Amino acid sequence: MKLIEKHPILEYKHGRLVTFTFDGVPMQGYEGEPIAAALHANGVKVYRETPIRKQPRGFFCAIGKCSSCFMVVDGVPNVRTCITPLREGMKVETQRGKGIVKMDL
User: Fold this and answer.
1) Looking at the domain assignment, is residue 32 inside a domain?
2) Residue 67, CB half-sphere, CA atoms under 13 Å: how many?
3) What residue ranges of the chain have pLDDT lower than 50?
4) What CATH number did the domain enclosing 51 receive?
């Protein structure tokens, strides 16, 4: 993982190291950090594609105000990964299109 370890002003504290999957591939990150930060540290730069033009999207605002980081997390589409904390065992998937909400009828 590539993380900033030292900064002249900011202090970085990490939770415990946890395992999660991204599109079926096991990865590691720090519990409590944004999912997007863990993905970025593991080299993942594309989080979804736009519904119509199929263009790649990744980090943009990083404060939960845009839709660039929408992903499917534990089966739920349109999760803002830049503000959603990472937990052990999360299943994170690339979102294609608008996202499909699975419903049991």
Assistant:
1) yes
2) 11
3) none
4) 3.10.20.440
